[in-house]
Design a protein that fits this description.
The chain is of the alpha/beta class and 634 residues long. Helix content is 28%, strand content 20%. The longest helix is centred in the C-terminal third of the chain and has 25 residues.
Length: 634
């Protein structure tokens, strides 16, 4: 993947964060069965707009007596024995919709992020303990703000600028491992990144995350029932997925292929997973075409057959070894109002494989060709090659700008290889459909597959990815159980995941996140949507296929300006689909003035022109005010 493709990573990876109280459950939880605290009733609420405000570093985590900003009134509001971020939250939200202005179609609340590892400080004896001052400021923020909220228990691979992180990173048991060993600290656009492991819950990282979550939940549960009922949902951890080296530019398909997790615990668990799936080594061998004497001999695939010697074919892995390869690229087709997308048709050896719309986000194309005026130029079709005969296959790609009119975009020759790496032979071809070469040629590109590239299917690789996906699900379940021990047990719990498959330049199998997006198990889907995934039809089609009921948009940004009617239609689309809340980033403002901090380039803010964020802020403001004005008077 080229370096500019990494710009597509965008907000889901932007860093937002520049022995304690026991949990209260049981009888107290029963008292809290309010309209906000019960899962069934919560689905009947209007979709909550819950922007995430940069209040942690500007207020809650600021040292006592040494504010990080010159605004004395704000410093007094944040600090002291009753200090909280409540006034800052309200000051920021009131620029969108004053609390006295009446509720519009969508109530306006906020998302309160709680950076779990930042809640620790080192005592004089050198031991790490919960910082009660920070916990109290967080809880008083809930108490002192009348608006509803989403409680975000935040702890991901992105640094929270917590001193404890550096200590935890010294223990390899806390770190994800590739075949080459533990992944050290890295960065994403200059921001520190810790490659934390979730292959096991038996490490200090998990213990500290759990300790902090219990401290926060225990303190929240000491609030009066009225305040607890403000919590409309709890999101778990933030994006949780498998990691890989060179995170900033390694999300695509370029070799070498390195994924996690190959720790000893993970390898042992993988063998147990295979035993459960196949029951006997004989059945496993028949499925794999292998001759293992026992499951204890099986190792996760980790080598590339093109460049490394293998003891067994089942050791091979790359971005395509699971049995599909992407046929993808971009095309610019000017649209008229109301017209649908253009389509790309793919043929293999003259036989129609399928077609795919030209509507996926390609920020790299827009950056290179700003005259296009839109990033929605990408297209991708994943071709299953598991049952194709070995040999040289011809891939032909056509652009359909108008119904029935095909324009050739190009041809690629690819080799489907057998286990013995037999030199591939040419395969018979069928006649291609009628087409007309356009003059001038279409503005388009076929990025993948590379001409003369080779592909090997290893049946062990899909099982490896399935197992890795279960590791993601199991870790989320573990933290869901922690929240279930508290008075927020019946409050909806959400994931806070990204959707790698929505980006045509990424290898989604590296992340192994799909199972956590589809499996329910009592945890609702929370998903961050950027670009066309936030406003197009693809996410809706995928969501309907999951069978889920109700979701939260944990981060939202169209990556382009929208006028008020367009933004309103987008919000209505999510509300009608079942969205229970929608969150976007906002910069903190005190008495109308921007608070000095490391500003988020994806914040909806009148002073942020990047990705149309200033226009989105104005449209959101107008949508909220119009919604309130249009409500019937009592």
């Amino acid at each position: 993947m080229s370096s500019h493709d990494s710009a597509d990573r965008l907000m889901p990876l932007a860093v937002f964060i520049a022995g304690c109280s026991a949990l209260v459950a049981g009888a107290m939880g029963a008292v809290l069965l309010s309209k906000y605290a019960t899962g069934d009733a919560a689905t009947k609420e209007q979709m909550l707009l819950a922007p995430m405000i940069g209040a942690i570093d500007t207020c809650i985590a600021t040292p006592e007596g040494s504010p990080s900003h010159p605004m004395d009134d704000l410093a007094r509001s944040c600090g002291g024995p009753q200090g909280s971020a409540a006034a800052l939250v309200e000051s920021t939200l009131s620029t969108l919709q004053p609390q006295t202005g009446g509720q519009g179609r969508y109530p306006l609340g906020y998302t309160l992020p709680v950076p779990l590892l930042k809640l620790f400080h080192q005592n004089p004896q050198g031991h790490w303990e919960i910082d009660g001052r920070l916990i109290n400021r967080l809880v008083r923020t809930i108490r002192d703000t009348e608006r509803p909220l989403i409680l975000y228990l935040f702890s991901t691979h992105f640094s929270a600028d917590a001193p404890l992180e550096q200590v935890l990173a010294q223990d390899s048991r806390n770190l994800a491992q590739t075949r080459d060993g533990p992944l050290g600290q890295s960065s994403y656009y200059g921001a520190p990144l810790y490659n934390w492991s979730f292959a096991s819950t038996q490490n200090e990282l998990t213990e500290r995350r759990t300790q902090a979550a219990r401290a926060v939940l225990g303190a929240v549960c000491q609030l009066p029932a009225h305040d607890i009922a403000k919590v409309r949902g709890v999101t778990l951890l933030g994006e949780l997925h498998h990691l890989f080296p060179n995170f900033e530019s390694g999300m695509g398909f370029a070799p070498p292929y390195r994924v996690t997790d190959y720790s000893p615990h993970s390898v042992t668990a993988f063998r147990s997973f295979l035993r459960q799936e196949f029951q006997s080594i004989e059945k496993f061998n028949r499925a794999m075409g292998a001759d293992y004497a026992s499951f204890d001999q099986v190792v996760p695939p980790s080598k590339d057959i093109r460049t490394e010697p293998l003891q067994r074919y089942t050791e091979h892995i790359d971005s395509f070894a699971q049995g599909t390869l992407p046929i993808s690229g971009w095309a610019y087709v000017p649209h008229t109002e109301g017209s649908g997308p253009a389509w790309v048709h793919v043929f293999r050896n003259g036989v129609f494989v399928g077609k795919t719309p030209v509507n996926k986000g390609r920020q790299d194309v827009l950056k290179a060709k700003p005259e296009f005026g839109s990033a929605d130029t990408g297209w991708r079709l994943d071709m299953d090659f598991r049952r194709l005969p070995a040999g040289m296959h011809r891939i032909d790609v056509f652009l359909e700008e108008a119904p029935g009119h095909l324009t050739p975009l190009g041809t690629r020759r690819i080799a489907i290889m057998d286990r013995a790496q037999t030199p591939p032979k040419e395969l018979p071809q069928q006649p291609l459909p009628l087409s007309t070469a356009a003059v001038p040629s279409p503005l388009a590109s076929i990025d993948m597959p590379v001409d003369e590239s080779s592909y090997y299917y290893n049946p062990l690789v899909p099982l490896w990815h399935q197992f890795r996906g279960k590791q993601v699900v199991n870790y989320l379940r573990f933290f869901d159980d922690v929240v279930h021990e508290s008075c927020l047990s019946k409050t909806p719990h959400y994931t806070h995941q990204i959707v790698p498959f929505a980006n045509p330049s990424w290898d989604a199998h590296k992340f192994a996140i799909d199972a956590s997006l589809r499996e329910q198990n009592g945890i609702r889907l929370g998903v961050s949507l950027y670009g066309d995934a936030s406003y197009g039809q693809a996410f809706g089609r995928w969501y309907r296929s999951t069978g889920r009921r109700g979701y939260g948009v944990t981060e939202f940004h169209p990556l382009k300006a929208m006028d008020t009617p367009t933004l309103q239609r987008t919000l209505e689309q999510h509300a009608a689909r079942g969205a229970e809340f929608l969150s976007f980033f906002m910069e903190p403002r005190w008495e109308g003035k921007l608070v000095a901090r490391g500003h988020n380039i994806f914040s909806f803010d009148p002073d942020n022109p990047q990705f149309g964020s200033d226009a989105l802020y104005e449209s959101m403001q107008q949508a909220l005010r119009q919604g309130a004005a249009n409500l019937p008077r009592p």
